[in-house]
Model the fold of this input.
Amino acid sequence: MYEKFEAEIEKLNQRVEEQACQRSGARLLMTHPGVGPITALATEVFLGDPARFADSKALASYVGMIPREYSSGGRQRLGGLSKQGNPLLRFLWGEAGAHAARKDPELQRFYRRKLVQKGLGKASVAVARKLGIRLWIMLRDQIEYNEFCRRGQKQQKSSEACAGMPETRNGANSHRPVD
Done:
């Protein structure tokens, strides 16, 4: 009986892989480390046209990876995940995020930082959300993972601001007070 189910699962996996290879968007998504044919195909199918999302917050809200909000009287309370979107896509992004955090150095740094700041559960969800946003960007711009990384490095090098350093005003050269 076990062998029968193994054979059936193997046939289904092959069909999913064939379908993913036939779709250009899924092929692009599979270039990201940690993303396999099932995650790539599900992401492309469930998101549909990536241009329908105005920004990454709209995407996260659609999938249900934003906090539930309880607000009253000017006080904002954020709860757990809203879980309003597709549960399969949330699950797949979570699993793929765990694998991607091991293979992608930038995601690994992000995961470790969130792990120290927030704990295991919130760090895992943060990585899954970040991975989902990356996949959406790759679909929207029709780029592979290498191009995505190149654009990220280019953006980091071009930014003039230095983290933690306040801006100088009126052409001042240093932050020391004038005597």
User: Anything to note?
Assistant: The longest strand covers residues 75-81. The chain has eight helices and two strands.
